[in-house]
Design a protein that fits this description.
Protocatechuate 3,4-Dioxygenase, subunit A, five-stranded mixed β-sheet
């Protein structure tokens, strides 16, 4: 199988860095950058084509997919049981479908301004392709059925390399190792499963350190001291987990709120070779993937009608108007997590979400993963070498 060697990846990263450093938002792409973008698209396309050809019918891959379906079905039922929701209700019933809470309506303002500075480096058309498909599996799930409806818990992507996104300005290095990250913050509960697959061989990427961070329902981040954020001593809605033998990491969090200029999203970074420290944090390793997860606009609309989200007076930015959604998708990669409400008709009981992310674990995107702060023994401290402008530059895999 053709793979991108670590040397080639490093060379690509250096060239991308140089191109970005000497270009300015809103300028027309020059001939060098156009050729560079075409080369990257060709390289990633070759990698994906080989992965698809060699991995689709492998017995080991089929077994992994079946394990994932069974695991997700079991997780869904466990989450319902923890909430006392084992009442025999059939999720496919008309009463659940007709509930006002789950009758989502897509509310998109076509007059919202676009951030033209980023348009030349986005591919919004590919993102919109996936945005037009509902990822809500709620209505098809019948509680208590573990066989005929297990296929509803399949993955939306298989052996497809996910494009990298920007790290964003609020990445903190050395987060706590934990599953539950909400710290009591109010919002719609979310149990998120992320499964990582190494596209070089389509095997689970086990032993990765997966870092997750997001805003609360008011659009505020912990761990950073920018104006409007919660400060270095706070840690809510941040955490890290190591992937298991099937490449799976799970988090208990809340649905993220929005803030000015950004649609609801979550940040994820994958670290290869990180060390788990005695103080329950991590250090070292190489950043091999940088992602942002986005959600069906209909789901966002429904969540935003609930407290405490509806107290956020910042104008809502939709997926369509967000400057970074275009980085998240390719023609073959669907960046939206699948999801199911734990109680059809009642968002307050929570949402189970899952997504499969393909990455090349030999990638090194450390230069794109500049951090605003570091978690120390007495809380977070500012990074004196923080290069915020780099946080708005994605690795060259988005095509």
């Amino acid at each position: 199988m053709m793979i991108l060697s670590s040397n080639l990846l490093s060379a690509l990263a250096v060239l991308s860095f140089a191109l970005t450093a000497f270009s300015h938002p809103g300028e027309k792409i020059d001939a060098l950058e156009a050729r560079w973008q075409a080369h990257v698209r060709h390289s990633i396309a070759d990698l994906n084509a080989d992965a698809l050809t060699q991995c689709q019918d492998a017995e080991e891959i089929r077994a992994r997919r079946e394990r994932a379906k069974v695991r997700r079905m079991a997780t869904f039922e466990r989450l319902r049981a923890e909430r006392g929701l084992h009442n025999g209700m059939k999720f496919g019933s008309s009463s659940a479908r007709d509930s006002e809470t789950v009758k989502f309506t897509l509310e998109v303002s076509l007059t919202e301004p676009y951030l033209d500075a980023f348009l030349h480096r986005r591919n919004l058309a590919q993102f919109n392709k996936w945005a037009e498909t509902s990822h809500d599996k709620t209505s098809g799930i019948k509680v208590g059925s573990t066989t005929s409806h297990a296929d509803l818990f399949g993955s939306n992507s298989t052996c497809i390399m996910a494009p990298d996104n920007i790290i964003g300005p609020y990445f903190v290095q050395g987060e706590q190792i934990r599953v539950k990250v909400d710290e009591g913050h109010k919002g719609v509960p979310v149990h998120l499963e992320v499964q990582f697959i190494d596209v070089r061989d389509c095997k689970p990427a086990k032993g990765l350190l997966i870092d997750l961070w997001q805003a609360n329902a008011s659009g505020v981040y912990s761990g950073v001291a920018d104006v409007g954020q919660a400060g270095y001593k706070t840690t809510f809605l941040r955490g890290a987990q190591q992937t298991d033998k099937d490449g799976v990491a799970e988090f208990d969090t809340i649905f993220p709120g929005h803030y000015r200029g950004r649609a609801s999203h979550q940040h994820i970074s994958a670290h290869t070779g990180a060390t788990l420290n005695a103080n329950n944090t991590y250090s070292g390793g190489t950043v091999s993937h940088i992602a942002q997860l986005f959600y069906d606009q209909a789901l966002i609309t429904a969540v935003e009608k609930l407290a405490p989200y509806n107290a956020n007076r910042t104008p809502l930015t939709t997926n369509r108007a967000d400057a970074y959604t275009g980085y998240a998708a390719t023609a073959n990669y669907d960046p939206f997590p699948e999801y199911a409400l734990l109680s059809a008709g009642d968002l307050s009981q929570g949402i189970y979400m899952w997504i499969e992310i393909g990455l090349n674990t030999s990638s090194n995107w450390d230069q794109y993963a500049t951090h605003a702060a570091v978690v120390g023994p007495n809380g977070g401290v500012a990074n004196p070498k923080y290069a915020q402008w780099l946080t708005l530059t994605p690795p060259p895999t988005h095509g």
